[in-house]
Design brief:
This protein is an alpha+beta fold. It contains 20 helices and 12 strands. β1 and β2 form a beta hairpin.
Length: 531
């Protein structure tokens, strides 16, 4: 967000030219840039500032940055210069410098609402969410009709897990600025986390109506429609997102995944060939495996290996390929992932029986929103990310899971496996609950977007039949989309009981064994995801 001069200076005959040599701190090489600034008989302070503002308003950011820097070098104390230059520094990733420049703007003009809003955005990027919230609230206090600040505050509150407040703030932004496609888009993301998929769909459609070429909104709508079980329509919007913005990696990968689900591997390859990111190229490798193009698979594997790509998807692909091709491809993520399944207990000291029962009640509450899950038979899955909810029983669950994740990591610290050596420094946890009734089960799948996956078992019923495997979790290296070539993949079954927690690499394919019981089988599932 920037503030530009409202009036352009009248053009006059040039009688003087001033040339400056300016050090640009936002350039990595620190080189000096020489440029000419004057179109006026005399280049006054205000004229130089107005030229900077004009260039910025015209989208000529590089030239505007030179002028802002020159204004600062000449000792001009103008809040607009420091605030706008702070915004440019933020866009260049120079966050600490951006913070200093924007704070200087506030020092010069303590009631400068726009600078407080900009500072909030910078602090958010720096991960200082609480400070960012205070700064953005100050912007709103100074300018009560500041729609963009309300929208930014909504995003901050979402990240802080205050979803109801986030929704209210974003709706206020829309009330103040009804034509803001970005605000409707932000609202849809909040509604997704709140589990309000139908409302999220309406909000995203409104964003697209206001801004038809909004690639991210089309991508988001695809995700929502998939949750609502409208797969064909979802694919249409992912295709639209990629068409509008070929570099929209999120939409591209999601589209390719669903084309693979429909066994349209060649079409998926066509899309993936246009993107050279690690995730895209790993998925490309998986398509070659599905198509049984072994020679090309080997070539692509060598190419990816040289780049030291480490993600769950390549781990799953390599483990499957080792069996059908009877080779020993080295997995950069995890070799023999079955050896890294850890089953532990969460006792009452860590999570009280009251909280455990509240978690169970949450799944049975008629107000709890559910979503479609293609891999799930005879059951349902909660919608959104439970960790964004500010319930004490959810936050207590998150706290104990973080402790168990650290135990898991330390347990395998000497394994030498890629997923341990390259453990994400910056990650997020996403969670949901699954409840199954008699006859219910999960089909074989994995969480290839994750790093590690886990299940905490809130309620394991007593089974009617004397079958020791009923309701248990089972692991395999066999990917359901890949050819088996009549090879024996084996199925490793792990017995689980109430209050067990099972953690494993996200590359590992897993499923559950059907059961018969009058009680439900309820578990709390989570993924650790690299940001």
């Amino acid at each position: 967000m920037n503030e530009f001069g409202e009036k352009e200076q009248e053009k006059k005959k040039v009688t003087e030219v001033k040339t400056f040599s300016v050090p640009l701190p936002f350039r990595d090489n620190k080189e000096n840039i020489t440029f000419t600034t004057s179109k006026y008989p005399k280049c006054s302070e205000e004229q130089l500032i107005q030229q900077a503002l004009k260039l910025h308003s015209q989208g000529n950011v590089a030239e505007a940055a030179k002028y802002y820097q020159q204004c600062i070098n000449l000792g001009f104390n103008d809040q607009r210069v420091f605030s706008n230059y702070g915004g440019i520094l933020r866009d260049l990733g120079k966050l600490e410098e951006a913070e200093l420049s924007t704070r200087k703007a506030i020092e010069l003009k303590p009631d400068y609402a726009m600078a407080y809003s900009n500072l909030g955005s910078i602090l958010k990027d720096l991960g200082k969410l609480e400070e960012a919230e205070l700064s953005t609230r100050k912007a709103i206090e100074l300018k009560t009709d500041f729609a963009d600040a309300y929208s930014n505050l909504g995003g901050l509150l979402k990240d802080l897990g205050k979803l109801e407040e986030a929704e209210l703030s974003t709706r206020k932004a829309i009330e103040l600025k009804p034509d803001s496609a970005d605000a409707y888009y932000n609202l849809s993301n909040i509604l997704i986390d709140l589990g309000k998929s139908e409302e999220a769909e309406l909000s995203t459609r409104q964003a697209i109506e206001l801004k038809p070429n909004f690639s991210e909104a089309h991508d988001n709508l695809g995700v929502i429609l998939e949750m609502l079980g409208k797969r064909n329509e979802a694919i249409f919007h992912w295709e639209k997102a990629v068409q509008l913005e070929p570099n929209n990696e999120s939409a591209l990968i999601t589209l390719a995944h669903h084309l693979c689900f429909e066994k349209k591997y060649n079409l998926a390859l066509k899309y993936l060939s246009k993107n050279k990111s690690n995730s895209s190229q790993t998925l490309y490798l998986g398509c070659l495996l599905s198509l049984e193009r072994e020679k090309e698979f080997n070539e692509k594997y060598e190419e990816i290996s040289k780049k030291s790509v480490c993600n769950a998807n390549i781990g799953a692909i390599v483990e499957h390929a080792n069996i059908i091709y009877q080779k020993r491809y080295e997995s950069p993520f995890c070799n023999k992932a079955i050896n890294y399944v850890l089953i532990d207990k969460i006792n009452e000291e860590s999570l009280s029986e009251n909280y455990l029962n509240e978690l169970i009640s949450f799944t049975k509450n008629s107000k709890t929103n559910m979503r479609s899950q293609p891999s799930l038979e005879g059951g349902f899955q909660t919608s959104g990310n439970l960790f964004t909810l500010d319930f004490p029983f959810i936050q207590s669950m998150k706290k104990v899971l973080i402790e168990k994740i650290e135990i898991y990591k330390n347990h395998f610290k000497d394994s030498g496996q890629g997923f341990i050596k390259n453990w994400p420094r910056d990650y997020e946890l996403r969670s949901w609950m699954i409840s199954m009734k008699s006859g219910g089960f999960l089909k074989s799948h994995n969480h290839e977007y994750g790093w590690i996956t886990g299940s905490f078992y809130l309620q394991i019923p007593k089974y009617n039949k004397n079958d020791n495997d009923s309701g248990n979790i089972a692991f395999s290296y066999q990917g359901p989309r890949y050819p088996s070539k009549q090879k024996d993949f084996n199925l490793t079954i792990k017995k689980i009981e109430t209050r067990d927690i099972c953690i494993f690499p996200s590359s590992l394919f897993h499923q559950t064994i059907p059961f018969e019981s009058s009680d439900e089988r309820i578990c709390f599932v989570f993924d650790l995801i690299q940001k």
